Amino acid sequence: MRLKGLLLAILLSLSLLPLLSSLVFHAQSEYQISGIPLDTLKCTFYWPSTHSLILVGYSKADLVIYDLGTAQCINLGSGEVSFVSQGENSLLIGLSYVVNGTSRTSIAVIGSDFSLKSEINVLGSPIYAFDQGNYVAVVLNRSGLIYLTYYQGKSSTQTLSIELTTGWSSSAGALSFNSSTQSTDLLLWYYQGRNLYLQLYQLVTFNGVVIAPSLIASYGPFNGGYISIIRQQGYNVLLGINSDQGPYALLLGNITRILPLSQYFSYIKDVQFYDGNIYALGTQPSSFVIYSRNSTFVLNLSFQGTLLLPAPYSSIWILGPSKEAVISSNLTYLDSNFTPSLVLNYTDGVGYLFSNLTGEMYELNLYTGKVIGSYTVQGQLEGSSWSDHGIYVVTGSEKGVEVYQFPYVSSFITTLTLTGISGNWTLRLGELWIRETSPEVTLQLPLSEYQFEVISPPGYSNYSGTILPNQSTVSIGIFPLSFRVLVISEGLPRGVSWGADVGKFNYTSNSSILNLSLPLGNYSLRIYPPLYYNYTVKEIFPFAKLNPSTLEVLPSYTSYDLNGISENASVVLIVLFTEQQFPLVIYSSGYNSTWTMFLNGSAINITSNPMVIRLYPGVYDVSIPMSGLNVSYPRLVSIPKDSKLNVTFKRELNLNGNSTERTGTNSSSPNISNTTSGEVYADTLIGPMTQEDLFLYKVISFVIVVSISVLVAIKVK
């Protein structure tokens, strides 16, 4: 069925060729096939049944069907051909004759052995015919009325005839598509005055018997309308229509889309249905429209595009005079050195184009947009076709019909394999952007050298390289990038050392910041606080995912204010350190009232016995000034080494050795609230002695001891 669509597209293109001026160029004889017995050409196509190019044209006054592969001719006499269509195993040719002044119309049936099997006499002018099971279905124009007539067994026996239109039709056309063993879709278009109408039918056979066609949909009228482009693509037919109401793109078949385009441009130049999208190219202004399901994307072009050419990996080229552009994730403009008039074919990464201006066929690399080669032909282009072996180009000149067969461009297969990466990535190959999810991609490329770039997911390195002709494998190593991670401590005195394990990396610092550089990934996390400190993570910012033991570094950056300076980092952790407090149990004897103890000059009201207070680690100076009592206690306590403090009160003795009866009191009366819980939490102002305080205390103590020793020595003397 694809060949039918190609044939119809070629016929439509050929109908426009007489409008173009004829130019003559030098031939390249190595690709020219000689001995073609035709003076003029009507149509040409490649027929799979004979694996050969079929030419339909005239040799002098006779209509001739010529098989290029076998050099066989079928002479159909002096008839005029109205259409040629390919059936399942036959060619169907619409003919009209004038015999003895009487008009006669028929369908010639050519078998797969390239012989005339039968000739079906029909009543009316045949517009189109196709095989449907054991029947030949013929669309006829009878005095301006369009009929569908079935002929049984490829004979002139008429079994069913149905009028498809009402009212007089000046001209009509038809195309069958989406065919199966039991059904076929038929598109009919016809004109009533200046108005264009379209009808879509479904034709069904049941147990070998044809059933009256069902009208699926009607479209029109399109005032002043005409079909400028028709393409059969898969199970669908794509139409480009220009009309007084503006241009339209119609997709009919398994998928139906009707796309009015007058709001984008006034004239449609080309239209393609490719990879689920409708692509339309127009002028006045020069615009390119992509219609995907329910969304429309519009681009205003910087040049007048004339042709659309699908390319690999959902890309599409827009071609114009000495300019081209490609849509592949984005829009890229390129200069070119040719002016294409017609797309002959595209396959395996190569587009085959023809220029009426220069009479050349061009081979365009659809990955790079560069011309691979070009060939000059003689005469004016009359038709083209493609086969398993190459491209056929048929021209006409004063010498008659000329046929050229050009080989396809050689290609090679290469496989790109990425290591060290998972997830989505993008390959830029030439001018195309190829999105991939697998770490391995296999490409069939036209024989050439290619520059490529691997655009990795965020957080991984990119890669650039070259693919050489016939290089079968390319291995690419991708590596994770490193990102800045800030771990900021709060709550530590200056100069205190702390650390962290992040994955297999160990870090220590005596400042408030750990400035790390880590590759993308997940890491185990462990903080090492200083002795006698606890920690909590106060803040995680901005893109870290943290549980108590895991840190995830993601490929993102943010600005963070650090000591008044803006710093960029991927992850910022705020670690809040808190110093531990340890219990000191105070035991007292010899005194049962409330009394006051001074630690490093800060008063603590002792209200119970024993009494527990909590202190930060360090050395504390103990002072218990009590008048009227002798108090014994250690002058220094070291936390957490010392966990208890014993205080003993004794009454003062008089000269006779008797104790006095007065009550002892503290020499000062601090304003401290009593507690009743038996446990006091030390005020934050009560801290251990600093190193300077401890040093001064030791010096003073040493001086006092030395002084006492000197006095004792003098007294002894």
TrEMBL record:
Keyword Membrane assigned to the entry: answer is yes
Keywords attached to this Swiss-Prot or TrEMBL record, sorted alphabetically, are:
Membrane, Transmembrane, Transmembrane helix
- Transmembrane region(s): 694-714
Bias category Low complexity: which stretches?
665-675
Annotated region (Disordered) at: 656-675
The protein's name? Thermopsin
